[in-house]
Amino acid sequence: MILSDTGPLVALFDPQDSLHERCVRALRGIREPMCATVPVLTEAFHMLNPQSVGSDRLREFIAKGGLSVWFFTPLALSRAFELMEAYADHPMDLADASIIVAAELLGARRVFTLDRKDFETYRVRRGYRYYPLEIVS
Hints:
CATH class: Alpha Beta
Strand content: 15-25%
Number of strands: 7
CATH topology: Rossmann fold
Structural class: alpha/beta
CATH architecture: 3-Layer(aba) Sandwich
Number of domains: 1
Distance between the termini: 15 Å
Shape: globular
């Protein structure tokens, strides 16, 4: 499974985005199921503008099964807040924290992001060990 960050979703569904073609090419190479978290989708729909064609296309993509949606549990939300505190020296927003928590709970190691700098810093906890994410961009 590949977890998607906000940037690629905005670029994929906004043809005016400067990274649109790059993200379309990357998506064509993805053979695994993709998943986004609710905070990531909230950011993406906000950035696309809810009344835009890009927003319509993203909703259609989700409705047709191109992207599954991961929801917080109370425990997962607590873990996200814990991560936001732990990365206070390198500020982590809720969308990024949700991706790390989803990766931990779903056993995912790959993230589709344009935010290489942040996601090269973050680590996914598995038991007592921490692992880097593989970035798909």
